[in-house]
Amino acid sequence: MPYLNVGETRIHYHTFGEGEPMVLIPGLCGDLYNWKKMVPFLKDRCRVILMDCRGSGLTEAPDRAFTMSEMADDVSGLMNGLGFARYHVLGWSMGGNVAQEVALCHPDEVASLILMSTYTRRPDRSSYAIDAMLNSVREGASISNFMQMMNTWCLTQSHYTGKKLVPQPRNGVDEGRMLRGFLRQKAALDGFDSTRRLHRIACPTMVVHGEEDIMVPFHMGEDLARGIASSEMVCVPRAGHIIPPESCSSRIVSFLERCSVELHALAADRAASLAKE
């Protein structure tokens, strides 16, 4: 089980495939296993790096609050520590906020940016709902029940057609530790706002958003794309907050081919040569 020490944090990560490096950042309360269905679509094109953010999964961090910029520094530290000076970044939901912060704080490292189901400032209604869900865990509900409630906001109406709730038993995990991590991620999320900084993102960017997303309404994805000059918008029909990989992976792979790390390096070398002439 691979770990890498990055400053004060011990990051849990997995790697798959060969090619240009690409890091995938999960959303609030998620871990690297959330990407298991996406990896097969990318591993033939990229060296895919999955990670647990501080506050979730098996990553270990100091027992204190943290910010989105610290989470971005974790991403940069992991990728640099693995030997990658330049890489692609894909973030989903809260992971898209972390990804934005990576592009803003470490612009020379990001070859391209893919922002999926994300936003510049967390939506008030979904934030309120998540706070209520987290409070239910404080009052005795299980983490499993919390995740079931979260999924009703992330998946579409058609997904639940004919389904009945099957309560999930407690699975013996340290729910107190998980709750503390989730609360700290939520606090970092509440403190994030990129609205007035989007114009500073200069790398090629793709914004991918589900047409039926109720956690983060579609117009928020459009607002995000409008704020980044170098961005393109992809609407995924009939998708909610969780976007099926098969419905967007071909567009992502095509985008990555146009934003090759190698092509950027050649362009930079050419620009440096011209500057000397």
Short description:
The chain has about 280 residues and is of the alpha/beta class. The chain is built from nine helices and eight strands.
3D architecture notes:
39% of the residues lie in helices and 18% in strands. With 277 residues, the protein is α/β, with parallel strands linked by helices. It has an eight-stranded mixed β-sheet, sandwiched between helices. Strand 7 (205-210), helix 7 and strand 8 (231-236) form a beta-alpha-beta unit. Helix 4 (124-138) runs antiparallel to helix 5 and helix 4 (124-138) packs antiparallel against helix 6. It is globular.
* Shape assignment: globular
In angstroms, what separates the terminal alpha carbons? Answer: 50 Å
> Whole-number radius of gyration?
19 Å
Average pLDDT rating: 93
Q: How are the SSEs ordered, and which strands pair?
A:
Elements: E1 3-6, E2 9-16, E3 20-25, H1 39-42, E4 46-51, H2 68-81, E5 87-92, H3 94-105, E6 110-116, H4 124-138, H5 143-154, H6 175-190, E7 205-210, H7 218-227, E8 231-236, H8 249-258, H9 261-276
Parallel strand pairs: 3-4, 3-5, 5-6, 6-7, 7-8
Antiparallel strand pairs: 1-2, 2-4
